[in-house]
Every structure is written in C-alpha cells, then in structure tokens.
Specification:
By secondary structure, the protein is α/β, with parallel strands linked by helices. It is about 25% helix and about 25% strand. It has a 7-stranded mixed sheet with strand order 14-27-28-29-25-26-15. A 7-stranded mixed sheet has the order 23-20-21-22-16-19-24, with no helix packed on it. Strands 6-7-8-9 form a 4-stranded antiparallel sheet. The structure holds adenosine-5'-triphosphate and magnesium ion.
Length: about 575
Amino acid sequence: MAEIKSEETSEKKSLNFIEQIVENDLKEGKNGGKVQTRFPPEPNGYLHIGHAKAICLDFGIAAAHGGVCNLRFDDTNPTKEDVEYVESIQEDVKWLGFDWEDRLYYASSYFQKYYEVAVKLIKEGKAFVCDLTAEEMRQYRGTLSTPGKESPYRNRSVEENLELFERMKAGEFPDGSHTLRAKIDMASPNINMRDPVLYRISHAAHHTTGTEWCIYPMYDFAHPLEDAIEGITHSICTMEFEDHRPLYDWVVREAGYTVNPPRQIEFARLGMTNTVMSKRKLRALVEDGLVDGWDDPRMPTISGLRRRGYTPESIRDFCERIGVSKANSSVDYAMLEYCIREDLKLKRPRLMAVLDPIKLVIDNYPEGQVEYLEAPNNMENEELGTRKIPFSGELYIERDDFMAEPPKKYKRLYIGNEVRLMNAYFVTCTGYEADDDGTIRVVHCTYDPETKGGNAPDGRKVKGTIHWVEASNAGKVEVRLYENIVDEEKGVYNKEDGSLNVNPNSLTVTSAYVEPELLKAKGYDSYQFVRNGFFCADIHDSREGAPVFNRIVSLKSSFKLPKA
Ligand code: ATP
Ligand code: MG
C-alpha cells in the first residue's frame, strides 16, 4: 500500500482510497499532472461537522498533491439560499484553516453557460421540452424492476424544442408546466438515466441574479458543468451521488468537455451519535427556537462548535481520525470530545473554579490574612508558567468534597480526615454546620502551616487532593453546562409524531466561584477548570470582568480510541 509521511508525527500513514486514486492519476500523468478539487456547499444553512469532513478532504487532498481547491457556492436553487449563509460559510472554512485564495466561485455565475449547453443539447437532439406534470413524470419513470415509459413529448422537433425552451426562458409559462429533459434511455436500469430533468421553471428571485432567470438548472445538470468549467480534476462528493455518476459523465461528455474531464469520487457521509446532521434539521431547531441560533454551543455546526470552545486543530484531528471510506457509519460523539481534550490539555491553563460551593473555614488560620501562593498554570506543561493565587481562612470547595457520613473508599473531607488543598496546605476536617433540613453550609478544618505548597516536611501522605477558591477574592460567574442535544438512548425521533426528541436537559445554567485569573477571560478563551472539565468564555455573552463560561467537555469519558 502506498504511504506518505505525516509532517507532525513523522509516522508513516496509509493513504485513503481517494488519495490512492489521486496518486495513481498523477503517476499515469492524467490531467497534465494537475490536481484541482472544490468544496461546493449550497448556501442554505450553516456548515456542520459533516461538512468539515468534506472540507478537510477537498482542501487536504489538493494541498497534499500540490493542487488547489476552489470554494464554490452551489447556488443554483433560487429559494432557501441567502447571503447570511454565504458569509458564514466563508468564515467557517477560513477558521478551520483552509484557504481558497482567489478561487471563490458561484455556480449562479454560470447560468448563461448552462443555458448554452442546454441549447446545444436540444440542437443535437439530446434534450427535449416535456409537458408532463411532476406526478405524470413519476408514473412514466418506472421502477427499479420495470422500465420507464417514454414521454409523449419526447419526439418533438428540434425547432419546436428550441422555441418552447426560449418561451420557458422568457417567462411565458408558469412553474411546473414544462421542463427540459435529457433524451437518454427510459429503459436504463439506472433510473437517473431515464430522461432526467435538466431545467425547471421557477419564478423566484435568486440571491445573486435576482429575477434575470426564471428557468433554473437541476443539480445533476449544473454540478458536472460547474466542475468542468472550473477545470476540476477530482470531484469528491458523498455516496448518495454514486448512482448519479453515469449522468455526471454524460453531461460532461455531451457538453463537449472531453479533454481531462472531471472525475466524480464518492465517500461515506459522516453521521454521529447523539446529534442531528443535516442543514434542514438544524434549521428546524433554529426556527423552532429550541436553540440560541445556528451557533448555539449544542449545535454540531462549525460555528456552534467554535462558540462551545472547539479549536480548528481538534476538528481537523477528528476528521483525520475518522478516516475515509465508502461504508456509511455513525461515529461516536465521544470521539470528537476526545479530540478537544487532547488538544487543550497541555495548551491551556488549569485553573480553579468551584461549581457547587460550600464554605470551608480554616479555624487556625490568622484572621483577616490573605496570602498569595505560587501555583503552576498547568502542572503538566511548565511552559505555561505560574501565577499567584490568593489564599485565606475562608474558601469555597465543591459540595461533594465533604461528607458527613462518608462511604468506605471516600478520600476527601470528613471529620478527622486530612487532605491536600491543591497548591496550598494540608487541612484536617474538624466539624461542620448544617441547616435544619440537613443541608451543609460550612465545613470547619485546621491547617498545617508546615505543608505550604502541598507537601509535608515529615513525609506524611494524604489520599485526597481537592481544589478550592479563596472566598473574598472569588469571582461569581455564569456557567453553562451541556448535554447532547438529542439523546440517542431515548431515540432521536419521537415514535408518535416523528418530531425530534430534543433532550430537555441539554442546557443547565448555573454559577461558579472562580479564582481572580479567570475573570480576565475574553470570548473564546478556554481553560481547564481543575476536576470540572474544559470551559470556554462565551463570545456573545461575556463582558469585561464578567465572563460567561460554556463547558466544552467534562474531563472523563468512558470513550476509548478504537485500536488502529
Ligand atoms: P445537508 O443535507 O446537511 O444540507 P448537503 O450535502 O446537502 O448536506 P451541501 O451544502 O450540498 O450539503 O454540501 C457541501 C459538501 O459537503 C458536499 O460535497 C457534501 O457531499 C458534503 N457533505 C455534506 N454533509 C456531509 C456529511 N455529513 N459528511 C460528509 N460530507 C458532507
Ligand atoms: Mg443540499
């Protein structure tokens, strides 16, 4: 098997099947040694993690073979498309780390060209204007086991077809009354080849061409032409287009692109557990107000992942790890979470925040004193340096770091037990105060001044280490905790009405006490909160000195990387 070296790891990595095709084509000197791909989103929604897979492939394969990749808006459908999406798509592709340079194209800028090809096909007797309604056309089409029936309009003369097509273009007919169809083979075992529709009438304004056109090309006609016009060599798309490939090749050939024609290659779409992944379904979540826009941190959109705190590196790493194949499968969402943990764990500071606080009072600590202790910003990465954190006789700790009646293996605070306060001192629990209903309000302890920095000079050990935040300097901030947007175990869809089973617990808004350093966080700054997970300051809702934190992911997962 062919191998290439990955720059970062210098590990040898095997080529995926698309890379092998491209390498072979280069070896055989096809396309004059050129590699040119394209990423062709339809601007009818925001990009999601599935698109990231396609982007990494389209741009990645071109770059790995000295080629280039076009960004092309596949905007031949006048309805549903919008400039808002055109802008967000560009932002997302750039953010992921890819550059189309000056190769930004709009399929709608080729409307005249598609039209000319259509006229050429009519003149050559390879296309005709058909008056069948959509319903009649369905009946004529036949099935997988039975051939279709030829349209009664199939044998119109070239002159009549030209005249009717002109009148379609001139706006003389209502939507749905006529189509232009290719004349191929109604008995083809491939239904896509049974005189497919090339043009339809739609009296709708288009986001770039306005009302200039009222006939619009079908995807199967426009896409191969777009590729051919731009000189694309390898047109990478998802598996559902496999059966359309003969038609793709037919259009390219009949349009006259016979030298170095583009080649369509299909791969499996990315599906993931515990989420939905189609622009249509994601748009429904936005329009139904179930989420805070396309970039809600629960959304699997690129912008949602960015707002949640995912990095471009983590998403590219994910796309690399999931690989490329022709078999559809569903990737565990935990894999994506694994990738962001891996990316952030050494890069970002590990600071202290308490999400569910109770007070810890150190009864033998000098009253009113605040000292500043030096602490590493990330104990696994010295390069991140150190910071000073305030410490005093009144701290916040996590509620579950104390138990009045501890179970056997509990190693944290209970009366009589000694633990380490991270980066600070050993403390021994001496008592607690509770409300009438048993809710614990304050835990009391004493500290050993000899253990500053977290080690005892006499070498005695403690089993537990807990984090804390000094009370008088603590900042109180809003924290948002997330769960999957749909819960796979309960079923993605409601059995009764087919609606999406949105997880009612997908968002929990709470507050946390944080050490002063965290109050400096600006939008997109991310941190590890010791023992609580990775968090990122929300880009929309954070204010100077008052960040709002989104939990990107918790620290632990049962997820294990599949064995390579
Ligand atoms: P959606 O159903 O989400 O709208 P789409 O395929 O209609 O998806 P396009 O804007 O047409 O979306 O897609 C642009 C490119 O991204 C296409 O090449 C498409 O094959 C690819 N793509 C879309 N979804 C996925 C996915 N889940 N996995 C891999 N590639 C995808
Ligand atoms: Mg689409």
